[in-house]
Structures are given as structure tokens and as C-alpha cells.
């Protein structure tokens, strides 16, 4: 009996450790990485470096917010990179009418893409990975039809948005922070957020409870598409160019990594917006650290793969518990 009790105690401690790591591991990893850079990376502690990191992580974070909603509803959105490409093409075509109209048109394009994804998932019954994979391929093709080649973007307002800021804080980072706060409030404090989590936890149970499952799923993918379109608009402003052939490439993988590392399980039913923010910053900082220490870009991909495996393993172990 003593050995059995001891074994149960060890297993309980192990499960508790795994649960703690899933919830707070991203913050621990971020703290360790920050400490390493402060000690061993030249010129890391500088306003210019922090500003650069904030600008670069902002589009990834915005896309990851939409991805978190999709994963929380037990889905996934592989089309976010293609929607960014579609957004930059629309911005280039409509910028002559003013940047605000170009933004509205880009967001409308993202909403249509999300509506297509959501309708396939909610009403046709197509698996999310299949529905969004189709748009991942076709969406970039549409973007290239609209804008076959790279085009410079020359607009004072876009230039100010991409390179300016308030009190040293880039506009892009401010927009990303505001969207993160709105998304977090929506998930935690609104009926829509509670319905989303209920659907992700068990769609059959949600249907039996009378929740509007189809409508919620469509809205989730529309939100993901609109956020990806906003990210494409901001990336275009930062680069001062529209390039649908490369903008958003592998963005879906970066977004999924940020969400999973941040503690949102792939099985749905839970969304951690704070963790998603920390996960996006962690991935950006990891990439920047490897670059600053003259390691090849392939190491970045390997490091991201290791982080994903560890995060998924932690989620699997917690699921068993």
C-alpha cells in the first residue's frame, strides 16, 4: 500500500508539473530567453532593438489572435497567410482612393475568405484543415491574379503607420495590443466567447443545448480572416510594398506555434489570449536571438519544431489527467 501511495503521489506531482508548465511555461521560457539576451547579446537592451522586435512581432500576433479563436472552437485556419497576400493585393489596387478605403476593402476581402471557410466547416461539414487548406492554395492564386508582381506602396499615411509611433511605441504594436485586448475581452466576457468555448469543448453537447453552433463557427472564421487582412495591411505599411508572392508565407505555422505554446490546446474548449501574446513574442525573440548570434535560419525552424513538440506533449499529458 505504501508503494502504491508513493506511486500515486509521484504521478500526481508529475501531472501537476505538466499542468503548470502548460499554463505558465511560455512565460518562464520568455523570461529565460530575455535573461540570456541581456547577458550575452550585444546591444539587446536598447530602445531601437525593442522597437524593431515590437514591429516585427505585431503582424504575427494579430494573425495568432484569429488562429486562437479557430483553435478554441476545435478548428484551425491554414488560410491566414493567403488572406494576408490577398489583403496586400487589394491594398495596392485601392490605395489610390485613400488608405482607409483600402483598409476597408482589405478587411472585406478577409471577411469573405472567412465566410467561405466558416460556411464549409459549419454547414457543409468539411473538416477545418481541409476547408482552409483549399483557400490557402487558392487564396494566394487569387492574390497573384490581382497583383502579379511586387509593387511599391507610396503613401504618406501608410509610411507613417509603418514607421511611426507614439512616445517611442510603434503604431503597429499599439494596434496589435488593442486587438489583443478586444479579443481577450470577447472570449472572457461575452456570450459569443462562452458559446465559442462550449462548442470547442463539445460540439454535439453545444447543439443539444440549443447553441447557434453554425453561426458561431462562421463568425469565428470571419474574425480570423479579418484579423489576417489587418495584419496584411500593416505588413504592407511596414514594408512599403505589396508582394503577394511572399507576404504571409508560413505565417499559419508561426501563428499556430504562438497559440499552442501559449497554452491553448489543439483539442479546443479553451483560449489563452495572454499566453498567445507571450507565445508570439517568444517565437519572435527566439528567431531574433538565433539571427543575432549568426546561426543559420534553418536553426530557427528546428527550434520552433522543438517548441511545438514540447507544447503539444504538455497538452497531451494534461488531457490524460
Summed up, what is this model?
The chain is an all-alpha fold and 321 residues long. The protein contains 13 helices and four strands.
Protein model, in words:
The mean pLDDT is 89. By secondary structure, this protein is mostly helical. The chain has one domain: ABC transporter involved in vitamin B12 uptake, BtuC, CATH 1.10.3470. It is built from 13 helices and four strands.
List the helices and strands and how they pair.
Blueprint: H1 2-40, H2 47-72, H3 80-94, H4 99-124, H5 128-146, E1 151-152, H6 156-163, E2 165-166, E3 169-170, H7 171-189, H8 191-201, H9 203-208, H10 213-239, E4 241-242, H11 251-261, H12 273-292, H13 297-320
Antiparallel strand pairs: 1-4, 2-3
Attribute tags:
single chain, 321 residues, ABC transporter involved in vitamin B12 uptake, BtuC, two-stranded antiparallel ribbon, two-stranded antiparallel sheet, 13 helices
Output the helix-strand order.
Answer: HHHHHEHEEHHHHEHHH
Into how many domains do the coordinates divide?
1
CATH C-level class: Mainly Alpha
CATH architecture: Orthogonal Bundle
Helix content: over 70%
What is the residue-mean pLDDT, rounded to a whole number?
Answer: 89
Briefly note the CATH topology name.
ABC transporter involved in vitamin B12 uptake, BtuC
Shape: globular
Q: Number of helical segments?
A: 13
Kindly report how far apart the N and C termini lie. 22 Å
Strand order of the largest sheet: 1-4
**Class from secondary-structure proportions:** mainly alpha
Low-confidence stretches: none
Biggest sheet, open or closed, and with what strands and sense? 2 strands, antiparallel
Rg estimate, integer Å: 20 Å
Percentage of residues in strands: under 5%
E-strand count: 4
